[in-house]
User: What shape does this take?
Amino acid sequence: MNRIRWIALFAVLTIIAAACGGTEDTTAAPGTTAAPGETTAAPGETTAAPGETTAAPAPGLEGTLKVLLHQNPPLVAYMEDFNGRFEAANPGIKVQMEIVESGDIATGIQTRLTANEVDVIDYCPAGCSAFSTPVQPYMSNVEPPLWQQLIDAGLIADLSNESFVANYDPVAVADAGTYNGGVYALPAARVSYSGMFVNNDLLADVGVALPTTWGELVAACDTIIASGNECMTVGGADGWPVFVGSYGLIGAYYPDQAGLVEGLWTGEIKWNDETSIELFRRLQTYTQDMLEEGVTGLAHDAGPARYSAGDVAFMPTGVWQAPALEDAGPAFDWTYVPFPGSDNAADNQYLFGKYDMSWMVAEDSQNKEAALAYLAALSDPAEYQTYVNAVGVIPTQPTATLETKLGQAIADLIPNYRVGFEQYWLPPTGAGQWANGSQAASFFAPFNEWTDAVELANQAQADLDAGLGS
Amino acid sequence: MQVMKKGYLFGKGWRGNWPILLLLPGLLFYLIIAVGPSLATAVYAFTDATGLRGLPVNWVGFDNFREFLVQGAASRDNLAALQRTLVFAFFVTTIQFSLGLLLAVVLNQKIRGRFFFRTLFFMPVFLGVVIQGLMWKLMLLPRGGPVSEVFNVFGVQSEFLGGPPTEAFVWVLVVQIWANVGITMVIFLAGMQTIPTDLYEAARIDGARGWKLFRNVTWPLLTPAINTNFLLNVVGSLQAWQLFLVLIGYKPGTQVLGYLVFAEGFGQTGGSGSFRQGFAAAASIVLFILVLIFGMVANYIVARREKKYMA
Assistant: This one.
């Protein structure tokens, strides 16, 4: 009996020991580790033509690299391909990529960094932007943005001394990846969200010219709807695409978006002054008269499929939906133009946008070298060009070009690119839920309860004042 | 065979400590998993903790509570969320309780297919909140969704979950009840099946039928099940928030207190995206006090019922 007890105890201890020691064996047997220079590809083989690309080998690196990525179908498809190439070029490294909805990625970053369970982070929390403007001198009583909290906590590695940082546009790195003199993020992309996709075939069918002013847009919508088609669609079920679709309209009224934020904070601009009330009226027209019925249930990801059905003239949204649009309907003839929010066509030439996803490395990463090699491979100009082509973003590397259909559509507008409101905006603590007037489009019925533009404008200003004065 | 002396179930001496030793692992587990975090939350509520490793945690006194309850227009929104929580709890408790009881009464009869229907009504309980939410998101599509099509037959239009806050709120309430009514029904059914049939026979001999039978036999003898369901429904609905996250997300005018705690703690409020776990802890203390008050009231009602019927 005693012998059986001892055997049982030994078995239990063995199982516990095995479970505790269950981390992946990342140490190769002696002799299997590649010596420095003993890479799988010969020099020169690491730079390939776009589409074949590089994923440059980093000799001697081993381990499991944990990568956190936000959900975006074209991006995920590209990253899966890239990981395959990176693993092939670096046989000692296994990439373990976790994909999280962008609404949940902030939580994912926090929990994984706290548990030290992530090496490479795609920084793309709600709103998916790289470093927005930090707290400004004219702001008080405000919470710092998440990226600032992460760096202050010492959780993010400083990339200042990495040579691949030089591959990126220095302005983009300074604007969207630098803090307190260190480079903590690689701004992988810029996007524009203030334009709209245009269904060329439908406009031709109903005999409407491409609208270049607000008046023309209103008239075009009337004609299109009268013809039995729909004027606009957006993925309204997710909430944010409704107000993102209206950013062009706000940009037409306030082309200096940093100035708008400062004005709101200092009281020089009010949500209920004459200009803003006119803006709010147009936002109401956009929400209630231009968007098709039923968009309250249309998910953002489903937007391109709905739009490419062909009976909707415009889809005001970000350029990131271009690849999905091409996949959804290759024969579908579209272009992308700035949202004509102003009565003056010259005011409607700007593309507002933001720095999008950016790459970070966890400071306490146990695979820091591999993580840096991963970023180096992603930053290789040839690889970066493949990424740009696949995901359809506006490049942040000066050598890259947007060679897609979208790139052709917006090539002339790139010089008119401006950073938009949401990159500058931080709400004062105590501000109410209607204080961010840039989201007013989604506050109107049918998405929310407001039906009067003036009442909403007054409430937005009152909610902002409550925060500024608290 | 060893016979234990009366009063010493595990024997005298060191053997008498067996119950404590057996309870110890469970007790330790409870302390670590439940009591520890609860105490930590109470302390966190007085700090500016972010939950991020490496950032200093400063003592801020009652600032978080002041911000939650009285500072600026945000406090108005917080108090509205608190009010919404109470409204949600009231409707969920009353409707889920009544519907669960009705289903249990019907499915406790010897009718054909009763086992099938018991399974059918209980099935949503097995599904996770995410599955429940995604399923209903599809059901409630305003364009071409099944519920929308049925509504169209009667000329009714709704924006469902994407519509104005009140409308979206009502649909979350419907889904919450659908998801949990099965467990209420099962508890009632279990209670009904413990009632001896001879009591019904005796009552029938005395001329009791239908409502009288239910009122005078079933209802009093169902007291333990009624009390359990009442407490579970009150506390569960006050704490509910996951369906709000899955079905609506952070939308002005729809949050309940539980969701507000999550959103503030994990940068989901659409503001700066910063993590405010100290503030979230203060909000959760407010929620705890609410649950405590209503839990005590519910417990008082339950105790009175037990005294009345079970004495």
About this structure: Chain B has 13 helices and no strands. Chain B has two domains: 13-44, 63-310. Residues 91 and 173 of chain B are 8 Å apart (CA to CA).
